[in-house]
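Table S2 (text version). Query chain:
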Amino acid sequence: GSISYDHPDPSIFLVLHSASAVEGVSNLDFVIFGPRILAMQDTFRPPWFHRNVASEFMGLIHGAYDAKADGFVPGGSSLHNCMSGHGPDAATFDKASNADLSKADVITDTMAFMFESRGVIRPTDQALEADFRQREYQQCWQGLQRHFAGR
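Corresponding structure-token output:
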């Protein structure tokens, strides 16, 4: 992954990897997002909006996470199963879109992790029914404005 231009590919933070029988497809990858410096130029620094064939389960251990600084608290987690679109919340998008890219983002107070799997991750009934579950999680994207005109 590039560290000069574009958002760095999460694979540069890979800690553990479980290969599958299919070349290029992992059973499971474990990634740690610790303190780091984002110095990319002329680009959008947070993780962009995307969907992928892997399922992503993320958790925040300490500090803040750069893609959802206002809505992701320590002890919290998120699950985006395969082909579920996801990306930064509206406030993070606006801040990053107007950032001064001549200065690096020095992220010091964070420790997040991600499990990425080719399998679908199915939450337990206990997790789905938990009182502390963010039932309106998708609202974090409601403030996004359209910046692209269709043809």
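Notes on Table S2: The chain has one domain: 10-120. The longest helix spans residues 90-97.
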